[in-house]
Design a protein that fits this description.
heterodimer; A: alpha+beta; Beta-Lactamase; Immunoglobulin-like; nine-stranded mixed β-sheet; five-stranded antiparallel β-sheet; B: alpha+beta; transport (chain B); acetylation (chain B); membrane (chain B)
Chain lengths: ~425, ~950
C-alpha cells in the first residue's frame, strides 16, 4: 500500500512529506528529479518510476508534483486515484490547491492526510465524512477558536461513515431545498488540413449541486437514453435500476458532486459546431498567416468564448496581424499566438490575417503547427441528450429543480 | 492568521524555547507548541529531543492535541523505545474509552509504533477491538493486524489474529469486510505461512461478492484483487463471478474498473470460447477501457500499458476502437508513445489506410523522439499487414522527400526491415535511397544503407563506388557500420568478382590489420579464409537465404503474456515483467497461471495447473519432503529403464517425466499433485532390475509404494525435478532438472522444453568452478527443439575440475548456451550424490578417527517426523552410500554408527540415535571439514523423508 507522500513544487523543493508506515528518506525523490530532468516539460514526467527499492507514482497538478512512494506490488491506478482524491480534497477544503495554501493550512493538511490513509489503506476519502471529522477552515471559526480555545477537530464519530449511504451525512437541513444539474459535454476532435474530421468524441458529465434536507431519493430519466451506452456513475447510483430501466436512481451526497460521466465514442456521429480555416505560407521574404472561424452544426445556438491558440514554428520571430474582432497576443518565447475571438456572428465571420517575420536565412519549418480551439455553447448538449424527468421520493417538501446544458471544447485540435 | 507562522524559525535556542512552552501550564500555549513541533517535523527537522515533553501532553481530553501528539509519537517512537513505553498506559486506557473515535484512534496509533516492546502490550487491546461493538473500531483493528504482522509476523500468527481476521470476512458491515480483505492481502503477500491459512473457498468468495456491492471504492479494489487470485472450481462458478463483477465496469474510479477487467480477463479463460456469454463480455469490456483513455494522462498511461496486454491476448475487444488511440498533439510524450504502440497492434487490412494517414501526420510533428517512433511504426505496419506494404513504402518515400534529416534516417532503417520481409519486391526504390547517402550521419541508418547496397549489389551499377566512398573513413565509423561494410563488400565481391577484387582486399586488410576491434577482426579473418579456401562455399555462406522477419518479434511471449494477464492493473502490468522479476524480498513468491478451461478428462490437470508452482527463487520450498509416493514412482520407472544400463546395487536413474505439456509446465512440482502415474508407462513386473544384496527388495518395495504403503526405499534418492530456468527469463527455454547418482557417477538429469515461437538448437553447457570441482563428463546431448517440444537428457558429471568455494557449498552455477543467447542459473546439488561407493570405513579406524577429531568438530541435529524403523533407516542410507559400520542398543535406544566419503576424499562420521516410538532422531556428525555438515544434514533429512 502507499508508504509515503511527498509534495514537491516546481523549483524542486520537497516542502511537505507524510509517512504512513516507517519513514522513507526524502532522498528517494532524487530518482524523481532525475526523471524530471529528462522530461521536456513538467507534464512529461512519467507517472510510474521504478527505483531499486521503491516505486514512485506521481501526478502533476497546479504546478505541484504529488509523489507517492510504494514498496510492494499495488495497483498503480489505486495510487493515482488516491492522489487525485487528495488534490480534490485540498481544493474542496481550501478552494485552491497550491504551495502557499498548503503551507498556510499545514495542520489541517496533515490531519486530513492522516485521516485519509491508515497504514497505507484508504480510510475516509469522502469529502462529507472528512468534513465531519475535520472542519474546513473559515474566518469566523478561526476567530471563535482563538477566543474560546476551540478546535476544528470533531470528537464525534462521523455519522455517515458506516451507514448504507456512506456518502451522505444525516440530519441535513436547508430552508430552501434546491437541486441543480449541469449537463456538460466536451467535444474532443482532431480535424485535418482539408477540414475533414479525423476523429471526434464527446466526454459528458452530469454535475450536481444538491441542497436537500433529510434523506431524499431521486430519480432522473432521459429523453434519449440510447446515447448513453458507456457511462460511469458515482457510487450512490443504483446500477441495477439503470441496467433494467435506464433510470438513474440515487440518494445524493450533500453538496457538489459528479453524478455521472459518459462517453460518446467515435463510432456514433458527433456534430462539430465550429470550423477553422487556417492558411500559412513561409517564404524567404516572410510568412503569411490567414485564419477564419465560423459556426458549423450549432443547432441554432451561438458559439461563444472562442479562443484560438496556434503554436507557430520556431523560425517565426514576430507577427503583424489584424483581426476583425477580439484581442490577439503573440508570445515570442514559446511562439504561441493566442486570439480571443469571443462570440461568433454568423453574418460577419471573424478572421485574422497578416504577416510573420521569419528568422532570416533559416530553412522553412519542418513541422506544421497545430491549432487548438476553445469555445462554449450555452443551453445545448451537442450529443442531443435531454433530461426527461426528475422526481424525488422519501421527503415531503417540494424542491426547486433545474437543469442546465453546456457544450464546450475539450481537446479540440486542428492540423495545418 | 495562518499556519505558515509555525514554519518561521526563531533561530537558535528553538528547541529550548519549545521545551519551555510544552511544559507550560496553559493549554493553549501547549497546543501551539505541539503544532510548532509537528511543523518542524513536517519539513524534516529533527525534534526527537523533545520526546518526553511531548509525551507528557498526551494525557488530555482535547482530541486535536491528542491527535497531534500521536502523530509525533508515530514518527519518533522508534528512536526512543524506552520513552515510548511511557505512552503504553495511555494507549491501553484509550482503547477502553467510551468514545469509539478515541478507541479507534488509539488502536490505530499503537499499530504504527514500530517498537517491539510496545507490540507485546498491544495484543490484548487489539483482541478486544477486533470484537468491538462499533464497526468503525473493528475496521480500524483489522488494518492494525496487518501493521502488527509487518512488525512481528510470528506474534500475529501465534496469537491467532489471522483467525480473527478471517472471521471478519463474514462481518455484517461491508467496510469491515473490505478492510479485512485488504489486511489479509497484504499479509498474504509477505508471508507464505499465512497464505496457507487464508484459503479461499466458495463460501468466502460469496461473502466477498456480497460485500463488493456495498463497500467503498477502495474496498472494491481490494476485494476484486483477491477475487482475481481465486480459481473457481468449475465453469459455472467462474461465470457467476463474472456476472457479479461486470457492473463494476461502470464505476467512476478507474482503479476499480481496471481491477474488474483483470478478474474478467482471467476468468474468461475458463469459459467456453465463442459462447454467447464470452461475446457479450467482450462487448462489455470495450467501453470502460475506452473511457479510461479520456481520464487524466497518468490514468491513461497505466490504462494504455494494460490495454497493450489486453489487445495481444484478446484482439477482439478493441478491434473497432482504433480511433481513440489517435494521438492528440498535447498528450504527454509517455501517452503518445504508448498509443502508437497500440495503434500498430490493432492495425489490420481494414483500417490500415487510416493508420497510415495518421502516422504520416505524426511524422511531421515537432517532438523528434515521437517522430522517429512514428516512422518506425510505419515500417512495422508494412511488416504486419502484408497488403499494406506497398502503401507503407510509398508513405516512407514521401517522408524521405521531405528531406528532414532524422526522418530520412529512420525511414532508411525501416526500409531495410521491409526488404528483409519482402525480398525482391521494392528494389525500384533503391535509387531514391541512394540519393540520400550523404545526409546519413547516424550509425544505424548508415549500417542499414550499407546493408541494402550489399544485398542488392548486382542491381546497383555503382555499388562499388558507393561502398568505396564509405571505406575512406572506415576507422571513424561506428563498429556496427564497419561490420556491415565488411559484409557488404564481401557480398559485392561474390556477386561481381571481376572488378571488385581490389576493394575486397582493401576492406579485409582494414578489418584484420588496422582494427583493434576483436569482432571485426574475427569476421574479417573468417571471410578471408573462406574466400581463399573455397569461394563456392563462401558464396553459400555469405549469400545464403535469410530467414524472413515477422511481426511476432515484438509480441510478448505467450507464457509471459498469460502471466501478465493475471497481473493486470498491477505494477507488473506497467513494466510488462512478472512481479518476481522486480519486486524484491517477497517471501513465497508464487507464480500465477491463467486458469485453464476444465473438461471432464482434464480437470485433474487444470487443478494442478492452477495450484501455484513454486518459483525457483524459493528452492527450499521445492525441496521440502514430498509427502506422496511419486518420487518412488520415478525410481520405479528409472529402474525399468536402467535395466539395459547394467545398474549396480545402489543406483537408480532419474525419474523420467512423461512428456505431456502440463507436466513440463510445472516441472517437478507437479509430481506430487498428480496422484498416480498419469501417462507414465506401467511397469511390467519382469522389468525389475537385478538387485544387489543390501536392497534386494527395493524394486518390489517400489511397487508397494505405488499401492500406497511407505516404501522401504531402493536406490539413491533422487529429488523430483524442479524448474531451474524459467521460460520467461530465458527467451522461451525452460529447463527442469535434478541430480542423481548411478553407476558410480553423478548425473545431471534435465528436461529441456522449448516455449518460444522459434526453433532452439545448438545447446551447450558449462559449469562454473564450484566447491567439489564438478565438471561435465561428456558433451551435452540435446537435439534441436521445435516450439513446445521437450527433451530429456542426462549429463554425466565428474569431480575432477577446478575448485572454488561456493556459498552454499553445494551451489552449482550453470551456463546454457543455445542459438539465441547464453542463460545462467544456479542450482543446489543434493550432497548425497557426491557420496562415493567406497565409503565403508573399518570399525577400528572409525573408532580411532572419531576419537581423533576434536569434539568442537562435532555437530548435532534433530531430525523429526521419521516414521521408519532402524532397519529401514539403515537400508535407506546405505542405498545412498552412507554405510552402517556398527549398530548398538544402549538403554533401549538404537545407535547407528555410519561413515561416508565425499568425492573429494573428505570423510564424515555420523552417529544416529533412534528411540523406538519416537519419531525424532538425533544425528551427530564429525568431520575434519565441518563446513559440509549442514549440507549433509539436509541430505539426511531428504533421504529419511522419502
Amino acid at each position: 500500500m502507499i508508504n509515503s507522500l511527498f509534495i514537491i513544487n516546481n523549483s524542486g523543493d520537497i516542502f511537505m512529506e507524510k509517512h504512513w508506515k516507517s519513514v522513507i528518506n526524502k532522498s528517494v525523490c532524487d530518482y524523481f528529479f532525475e526523471a524530471q530532468e529528462k522530461a521536456a516539460s513538467p507534464d512529461d514526467v512519467p507517472p510510474v518510476i521504478n527505483t531499486p527499492h521503491h516505486y514512485l507514482i506521481s501526478i502533476y497538478r497546479n504546478q505541484l508534483y504529488f509523489v507517492a512512494v510504494v514498496t510492494t506490488e499495488v495497483p498503480p491506478l489505486f495510487v493515482i486515484e488516491f492522489l487525485h482524491r487528495v488534490v480534490e480534497t485540498f481544493e474542496d477544503y481550501f478552494s485552491e490547491c497550491n504551495e502557499t495554501i498548503i503551507k498556510d493550512n499545514f495542520v489541517i493538511v496533515y490531519e486530513l492526510l492522516e485521516e485519509m490513509l491508515d497504514n497505507g489503506f484508504p480510510l475516509a476519502t469522502e469529502s462529507n465524512i472528512l468534513k465531519e471529522l475535520i472542519r474546513p477552515p473559515n474566518i469566523i471559526r478561526t476567530v471563535v477558536n482563538s477566543v474560546i480555545g476551540g478546535t476544528n477537530v470533531s470528537d464525534q464519530l462521523p455519522t455517515g461513515q458506516l451507514s448504507n449511504v456512506p456518502w451522505r451525512r444525516s440530519g441535513v437541513k436547508y430552508t430552501n431545498n434546491e437541486a441543480y444539474f449541469d449537463v456538460i459535454e466536451e467535444v474532443d476532435a482532431i480535424i485535418d488540413k482539408s477540414g475533414s474530421l479525423v476523429f471526434a468524441e464527446i466526454q459528458g458529465y452530469i454535475d450536481c449541486c444538491i441542497k436537500l434536507s433529510g434523506m431524499p431519493d431521486l430519480t432522473m430519466s432521459f429523453m434519449n437514453h440510447r446515447l448513453l451506452d458507456d457511462v460511469s456513475f458515482h457510487p450512490c447510483v443504483r446500477y441495477k435500476r439503470w441496467e433494467s430501466e435506464r433510470i438513474i436512481s440515487f440518494v445524493p451526497p450533500d453538496g457538489n458532486f459528479r453524478l455521472t460521466s459518459y462517453h460518446i465514442g467515435s463510432q456514433s456521429m458527433v456534430a462539430i459546431p465550429i470550423y477553422v480555416r487556417p492558411q500559412m505560407s513561409f517564404k524567404d521574404s516572410g510568412g503569411r498567416f490567414d485564419l477564419t472561424v465560423g459556426p458549423k452544426q450549432t443547432m441554432g445556438k451561438t458559439v461563444d468564448n472562442v479562443v484560438i491558440k496556434a503554436e507557430l514554428p520556431k523560425v517565426v520571430l514576430n507577427v503583424n496581424l489584424t483581426a476583425t474582432q477580439g484581442n490577439h497576443t503573440f508570445d515570442p518565447v514559446n511562439k504561441t499566438l493566442t486570439w480571443e475571438v469571443g462570440k461568433i456572428n454568423p453574418q460577419k465571420l471573424p478572421s485574422i490575417k497578416g504577416s510573420m517575420n521569419l528568422q532570416s536565412g533559416s530553412p522553412p519549418p519542418e513541422a506544421n503547427p497545430s491549432i487548438t480551439v476553445q469555445f462554449t455553447i450555452q443551453q445545448l448538449a451537442i450529443s442531443g441528450l435531454k433530461v426527461n424527468r426528475l422526481d424525488m421520493y422519501g421527503e415531503k417538501y417540494k424542491p426547486f429543480k433545474g437543469v442546465k446544458y453546456l457544450t464546450k471544447a475539450g481537446k479540440f485540435q486542428v492540423r495545418t | 492568521m495562518t499556519d505558515s507562522k509555525y514554519f518561521t524559525t526563531t533561530k537558535k535556542g528553538e528547541i529550548f524555547e519549545l521545551k519551555a512552552e510544552l511544559n507550560s501550564d496553559k493549554k493553549d500555549r501547549k497546543k501551539e507548541a505541539v503544532k510548532k513541533v509537528i511543523a518542524s517535523m513536517t519539513v524534516g527537522k529533527d525534534v526527537s529531543a523533545l520526546f518526553p515533553d511531548v509525551v507528557n501532553c498526551m494525557q488530555t481530553d482535547n482530541l486535536e492535541l491528542k491527535k497531534l501528539v500521536y502523530l509525533y509519537l508515530m514518527n519518533y517512537a522508534k528512536t526512543q523505545p524506552d520513552m515510548a513505553i511511557m505512552a503504553v498506559n495511555t494507549f491501553v486506557r484509550d482503547c477502553e474509552d467510551a468514545n469509539p473515535l478515541i478507541r479507534a484512534l488509539a488502536v490505530r496509533t499503537m499499530g504504527c509504533i514500530r517498537v517491539d516492546k510496545i507490540t507485546e502490550y498491544l495484543c490484548e487491546p487489539l483482541r478486544k477491538c477486533l470484537k468491538d461493538e462499533d464497526p468503525y473500531v473493528r475496521k480500524t483493528a483489522a488494518v492494525c493486524v496487518a501493521k502488527l504482522h509487518d512488525i512481528n509476523s510470528q506474534l500475529v500468527e501465534d496469537q491467532g489474529f489471522l483467525d480473527h481476521l478471517r472471521d471478519l470476512l463474514s462481518d455484517s458491515n461491508p467496510m469491515v469486510v473490505a478492510n479485512a480483505v485488504a489486511a489479509l492481502a497484504e499479509i498474504h503477500e509477505s508471508s507464505p505461512t499465512a497464505a496457507a491459512l487464508i484459503d479461499m473457498n466458495t463460501q468466502t468468495i460469496n461473502k466477498l461478492l456480497t460485500a463488493l456491492n456495498e463497500c467503498t471504492e477502495w474496498g472494491q479494489i481490494f476485494i476484486l484483487d483477491s477475487l482475481a487470485n481465486y480459481t473457481p472450481k468449475d465453469e459455472r462458478e467462474g461465470q457467476s463471478i463474472c456476472e457479479r463483477v461486470t457492473p463494476r465496469l461502470a464505476h467512476a474510479n478507474a482503479a476499480v474498473v481496471l481491477s474488474a477487467v483483470k478478474v474478467l480477463m482471467k476468468f474468461m479463460e475458463m469459459l467456453e470460447p465463442n459462447s454467447d456469454y464470452i461475446n457479450t463480455l467482450t462487448k462489455k469490456l470495450s467501453p470502460p477501457l475506452v473511457t479510461l483513455l479520456s481520464a487524466e494522462p497518468e490514468i491513461q498511461y497505466v490504462a494504455l500499458r494494460n490495454i497493450n496486454l489486453i489487445v495481444q491476448k484478446r484482439p477482439d475487444i478493441l478491434k473497432h476502437e482504433m480511433k481513440v488511440f489517435f494521438v492528440k498533439y498535447n498528450d504527454p510524450i509517455y501517452v503518445k508513445l504508448e498509443k502508437l504502440d497500440i495503434m500498430i497492434r490493432l492495425a489490420t487490412q481494414a483500417n490500415i489506410a487510416q493508420v497510415l494517414a495518421e502516422l504520416k501526420e505524426y511524422a511531421t510533428e515537432v517532438d523528434v523522439d515521437f517522430v522517429r517512433k512514428s516512422v518506425r511504426a510505419i515500417g512495422r505496419c508494412a511488416i504486419k499487414v502484408e497488403q499494406s506494404a506497398e502503401r507503407c513504402v510509398s508513405t516512407l518515400l514521401d517522408l524521405i522527400q521531405t528531406k528532414v534529416n532524422y526522418v530520412v534516417q529512420e525511414a532508411i532503417v525501416v526500409i531495410k526491415d521491409i526488404f528483409r520481409k519482402y525480398p525482391n519486391k521494392y528494389e525500384s526504390i533503391i535509387s531514391i535511397l541512394c540519393e540520400n547517402l550523404d545526409t546519413l550521419d547516424e550509425p544505424e541508418a548508415r549500417a542499414s544503407m550499407v546493408w541494402i547496397i550489399g544485398e542488392y549489389a548486382e542491381r546497383i551499377d555503382n555499388a562499388d563506388e558507393l561502398l568505396e566512398s564509405f571505406l575512406e573513413g572506415f576507422h571513424d565509423e561506428n563498429t556496427q557500420v564497419q561490420l556491415q561494410l565488411l559484409t557488404a563488400i564481401v557480398k559485392l565481391f561474390l556477386k561481381r568478382p571481376t572488378d571488385t577484387q581490389e576493394l575486397v582486399q582493401q576492406v579485409l586488410s582494414l578489418a584484420t590489420q588496422d582494427s583493434d576491434n576483436p569482432d571485426l577482426r574475427d569476421r574479417g579473418y573468417i571471410y578471408w579464409r573462406l574466400l581463399s579456401t573455397d569461394p563456392a562455399a563462401a558464396k553459400e555462406v555469405v549469400l545464403a537465404e535469410k530467414p524472413l522477419i515477422s511481426e511476432e518479434t515484438d509480441l510478448i511471449e505467450p507464457t509471459l503474456l498469460d502471466e501478465l494477464i493475471c497481473h493486470i492493473a498491477s505494477l507488473a502490468s506497467v513494466y510488462h515483467k512478472p512481479p518476481s522479476a522486480f519486486v524484491e524480498g517477497r517471501g513465497g513468491m508464487t507464480k500465477v497461471a491463467l486458469p485453464s478451461r476444465s473438461q471432464s478428462a482434464g480437470s485433474q490437470l487444470s487443478d494442478a495447473a492452477a495450484t501455484p508452482a513454486a518459483a525457483p527463487s524459493a528452492p527450499a520450498a521445492v525441496q521440502q519432503p514430498q509427502p506422496t509416493i511419486i518420487p518412488s514412482q520415478g525410481d520405479l520407472i528409472g529402474d525399468l529403464l536402467s535395466m539395459d544400463l547394467g545398474p549396480t546395487t545402489q543406483t537408480a536413474p532419474p525419474p523420467q517425466q512423461p512428456d505431456t505439456g502440463a507436466m513440463d509446465l510445472l516441472g517437478g512440482g507437479l509430481d506430487s499433485l498428480l496422484g498416480g502415474p498419469v501417462g507414465a508407462p506401467t511397469p511390467p513386473p519382469a522389468a525389475q532390475p537385478p538387485m544387489g544384496t543390501g536392497s534386494g527388495l527395493g524394486g518390489l518395495g517400489d511397487i508397494f509404494d505405488l499401492a500406497g504403503t511407505p516404501g522401504l526405499g531402493g536406490g539413491c534418492y533422487v529429488p523430483p525435478k524442479q524448474v531451474w530456468l524459467l521460460a520467461a527469463k530465458a527467451k522461451g527455454l525452460e529447463i527442469a532438472g535434478t541430480f542423481s547418482r548411478r553407476q558410480n557417477q553423478i548425473f545431471m538429469d534435465m528436461t529441456f522444453t522449448n516455449r518460444a515461437l522459434t526453433q532452439l538448437s545448438g545447446f551447450a553447457i558449462q559449469l562454473n568452478k564450484n566447491s567439489f570441482g564438478i565438471i561435465p563428463g561428456a558433451q551435452l546431448n540435446v537435439v534441436a527443439l521445435n516450439p513446445n517440444q521437450s527433451f530429456d537428457t542426462s549429463l554425466p558429471l565428474s569431480p575432477v575440475g577446478p575448485i572454488q568455494r561456493m556459498d552454499p557449498l553445494t551451489n552449482l552455477q550453470v551456463a546454457i548456451k543455445n542459438n539465441i543467447d547464453v542463460f545462467y542459473f544456479s542450482c543446489i546439488m543434493p550432497i548425497h550424490t557426491l557420496f562415493v561407493e567406497d565409503g565403508v570405513m573399518d570399525k577400528k579406524i572409525y573408532l580411532a578417527t572419531w576419537k581423533d577429531i576434536s569434539p568442537s568438530n562435532e555437530i548435532q541435529y534433530q531430525i523429526s517426523n521419521v516414521t521408519y524403523n532402524t532397519d529401514t533407516i539403515s537400508q535407506k542410507l546405505q542405498a545412498n552410500n552412507i554405510f552402517t559400520i556398527a549398530r548398538r542398543n544402549v538403554e533401549g535406544q538404537d545407535m547407528l554408527y555410519q561413515s561416508l566419503k565425499l568425492t573429494n576424499g573428505i570423510w564424515v562420521l555420523t552417529e544416529l540415535k533412534i528411540m523406538p516410538g519416537n519419531t525424532s532422531i538425533t544425528l551427530s556428525l564429525k568431520s575434519r571439514a565441518v563446513d559440509v555438515a549442514t549440507a549433509i544434514q539436509q541430505s539426511f533429512d531428504l533421504i529419511l523423508h522419502n
